[in-house]
Amino acid sequence: MRRPQRPHPRINYPPPPGLDRLSLNIYWEARSEPPLGQLAVAAVTLNRVDHPAFPDDVCSVVFDGGEWPRHRCQFSWWCDGKSDRPRDMAAWQTARAAAEKVLSRRYNDPTGGALWYHADYVRPPWANALAPVTRIGRHVYYRES
């Protein structure tokens, strides 16, 4: 008589490096965006990680510019002086799922390699020197010209 097989113990792998920071970036920059818009914000973050002009890890890219005075960060939520703790848990879970997908590289970059973006209701001076790539949700995406 065969003994029933024991189930394999659940293995808890550590989260990928940068998961929490990328999740926060998606949450604060794009929580009201459609799923494609959230992936696009995450893609810009990873495009920067892969580009030699930016830091080479997610945390450093997200926190880039934090040494400057308020409102000089690459991602505005990081140095706006407000709490960074997510308040909407459903939006947080959605942002985290998008971050996991992007960090596993199981997605196609909807931005075409963009390194910058801004909300469509502002026109930052730096945008004039860049090539617009696409618009997704309320964000306009750019890459080097």
SSE blueprint and pairings:
Blueprint: H1 19-30, H2 35-49, H3 58-62, H4 89-103, E1 116-119, E2 130-136, E3 139-144
Antiparallel strand pairs: 1-3, 2-3
Helix pairs in contact: 1-2, 1-4, 2-4
Detailed description of the structure:
A three-stranded antiparallel β-sheet has the order 1-3-2. It is globular and about 35 Å long. The relative contact order is 0.19. By secondary structure, it is an alpha+beta fold. The protein has a domain at 19-110: Orthogonal Bundle (Arc Repressor Mutant, subunit A), CATH 1.10.10.2520. It has helices spanning 19-30, 35-49, 58-62, 89-103; strands at 116-119, 130-136, 139-144.
Task: From the structure above, extract its key features.
3-stranded antiparallel β-sheet, 145 residues, alpha+beta, 4 helices, 12% strand, 3 strands
> What distance lies between the first and last C-alpha atoms, to the nearest angstrom?
71 Å
Level-1 CATH class name of one domain: Mainly Alpha
CATH architecture of one domain: Orthogonal Bundle
Strand content: 5-15%
Using only C-alpha atoms, the radius of gyration works out to: 18 Å
Mean pLDDT: 85
**CATH H-tier superfamily of one domain:** Cell wall hydrolase SleB, domain 1
The best one-word shape is globular
Oligomer: single chain
N-to-C SSE series?
HHHHEEE
CATH topology of one domain: Arc Repressor Mutant, subunit A
Structural class: alpha+beta
